[in-house]
Amino acid sequence: MDTTTAPAPVGVGTGVGVGTDAAPLGRPPAVRRRRPPVHLLRRWVSPVALVGLWQLASSTGVLDERKLASPAQVAATAVDLVQAGTLGTQTLISLQRVGLGFAIGASIGLALAVVAGLSRIGEDAIDPPMQMLRTLPHFGLVTLFIIWFGIGETPKVALIALGATFPLYLNTLGGIRGIERKTLEAAKALHLTWAQRIRHVVIPGALPQTLVGLRQSLGIAWLSLIVAETIASQSGLGHMINHAKDFLQTDVIVVGLAVYSLLGLATDAVVRHLERKALAWRS
Amino acid sequence: MALLTPQSTTDRDDASRPTGEHVARVRGHHRSFGDTHVLRAIDLDVRHGEIVALLGRSGCGKSTLLRSLAALDPVPAGEVEVSGRTGVAFQEPRLLNWRTVHQNVALALLNSPERKQRLGLAEAALAEVGLGEKLDAWPLELSGGQAQRVSLARALVSNPALLLLDEPFSALDALTRIEMHQLVIELWRRHSMAILLVTHDVDEALALADRLVVMDAGRIGRTWEITLPRSERAPSQPDIARTRAEVLAALGVRPTPRNPRRDPVTGELGPTHHQPTKRGAA
């Protein structure tokens, strides 16, 4: 196992997990203020300037090309990789892993939260082990997973699933618990059945918090993917990055990292859009 | 549908309403939580179309009795009988914030025989409480008074025989409260349901009820029948003033000298003696 690459994915991970930091548990995402277009434009000045400085440092030889490729080189490599089909293929493989792992983890987290949230017995049975397991740094389980599942797809998907389970579990459970007893009682006074109360009160009432959990779970799913792919993989973006490392192709590494963060940003944007649609009632 | 067709707009303060039939009958009802006896041997009848105000200090058991009647808590068999549907409105509107005003009201008919027409009936009920324009609003967009009216519409849309109101106006400002009193009386005249109003506002009880029942420490205490038409129930009216003093005494409030700032018509405290606008026949 190559441990020297570990810091890189973690660093990228904080970028991927933007959504995790933006919406702390228990607080609904704030309504975004509309900024005037001039202001929006102004916010692009410093990032563009930074890339310009980077290019300048590379062109003048201040920045060693073997340590970090220039932005122009990175862009050219990205075009090459896309045209060769490598980037698309590897990205698709990574997407499949994260999709499968997230689907499994999210389903488990949601199901456990619903059972624990709706019944006392379920809560007593499920919550203690979940609270203990969630404190376990799940990346630490990689070693065990490789012993258990080998180095195929299973340990990667399992790591992603495990990481995605807890934020959705905790937030959904918190959302269900946060529904006011008085509101549930009003539904009872309307003679709604148990199933109707779940459908009209519990699920929509817990939804804001569940969506916060969804964003956190997605962020962790991406992080887990990067860790899993970097440690042992014969394909995927992580493999592409690892392979490039052996040949000091810093341009390929940067392209891989950029794709990771773009994918993370894209999924986060999808959830934000979902939030705006589903939570219109809070405006 | 009784909700859509006003049955009678005449003042029903006379003795024309049906008596003898009870919409609710409570016999020897007892409730305790642990060692605390909240209700002790309660006997109470509510006649069809009657407004009963249940008064008492906090913790006297009046809300617990309402919960028994609303079947919100499990009750020993035979102690509480309610014939016909009930509708409940609480101190807080308790609306589902994630459903529109229209959907909130329609939900009350989800398990009723009228479930197919529930959207139309909900619209009519909202129009009745003056919120026909707010069908698609979210509850969080409403003022406190509007939200409480939605809550009333939701309680009434199923056309209940007994409307249970648990201090529904106590969180509203004084002016909104007066409007709500008038609205409740209007709705009551139209639908002729019985109302059990839990309140600790003696003046509210005097303005609205046919019968005042004081509860103390889980027991039913004194009862007053008010036969005076609602339009004649000014606080200065001798019978009303006397009943008011008696009820307050039964609640353990010592009499205070008459406050010159108290409005002689509404009983509201205010800086001036301006005559308030009279709406409806309440």
TrEMBL record, chain A:
Region (Disordered): 1-30
CDD domains named in the record: TM_PBP2
Domain ABC transmembrane type-1: 87-271
Chief place of localization: membrane
Bias kind Low complexity: ranges: 1-11, 19-29
Its membrane topology: Multi-pass membrane protein
Name recorded for this polypeptide: ABC transporter permease
Species name: Nocardioides abyssi
UniProtKB/TrEMBL annotation, chain B:
SUPFAM superfamilies reported in the protein's UniProt record: P-loop containing nucleoside triphosphate hydrolases (SSF52540)
Keyword match Translocase: yes
InterPro entries registered for this protein in UniProt: AAA+_ATPase, ABC_transporter-like_ATP-bd, ABC_transporter-like_CS, ABC_transporter_ATP-bind, P-loop_NTPase
Biased composition (Basic and acidic residues): 10-24
Protein name: ABC transporter ATP-binding protein
Keyword Transmembrane listed: no
Start and end residues of each ABC transporter domain: 24-242
One MF term in the entry's GO annotations: ATP binding
Domain of life (superkingdom): Bacteria
Positions of the UniProt region annotated as Disordered: 1-29, 251-282
Assigned keywords, A-Z: ATP-binding, Cell membrane, Membrane, Nucleotide-binding, Translocase, Transport
